[in-house]
Amino acid sequence: MKISVQMDDFDVGFEIKSISKNNSIGAVASFVGLVRDVAMTLEHYPGMTERAIGKIVEEAKTRWQVTDCTVIHRYGALEPNDQIVLVAVASGHRGDAFAACEFIMDYLKTRAPFWKKEQTAAGTRWVEAKTSDDRAADRWEERKPDAA
Amino acid sequence: MKVRVLYFASVREKLGRDAEELELPADVSTIAGLRTHLRARGGAWAEALAESRLLRTAVNQDMAPPAAAIKPGDEVAFFPPVTGG
User: Which of A31, A36, A48 to mutate to test the interface with B (most CBs of B within 10 A)?
Assistant: First the structure.
């Protein structure tokens, strides 16, 4: 398992290869988040961020078969089209890899302490949290395997 | 008791401060109590920590609700809902 909160960019190909070196792995699912059309600065809560992502990954491991996993999230100044986040999950089969990858991303959106500040022509503004992100994370509560 | 309080993102900007060590009066023992205590400073504090403002809080780097207890030496953080990913 690798969790990294960093200013530097990352190489998706390298990261996927790094979690594919085990012949019990039959599937790697990955998600890459990019900056759309507005430059931004990402702030985070050092210490809590890594801890929060670690807890999300642990939760994913209780729900699906996760052989290995890498989560990288950048902070600092980012330009349009820059990579922001990578979630890559290696598993025996694709179902678990897809589901765990989406779950980690949905939970990261609502539980990991990051804040985006956009630089627009009109000045800077803090991005507002979206209720659609809360709903995306809430779906997984309903699908919890041990829910009666 | 003494606690460390951290502020992030728009809260940090409004307060012009990112952290402080604070000696709390005996009657402050929860996050909600601490928020009320800080709001009593008035000005930017009353505004940034206003009851109407939706904020998230953490104790010792775990998300925690307003009713969560605070112990001596705890690290308490105030911040807006998160927007990463």
Answer: A48
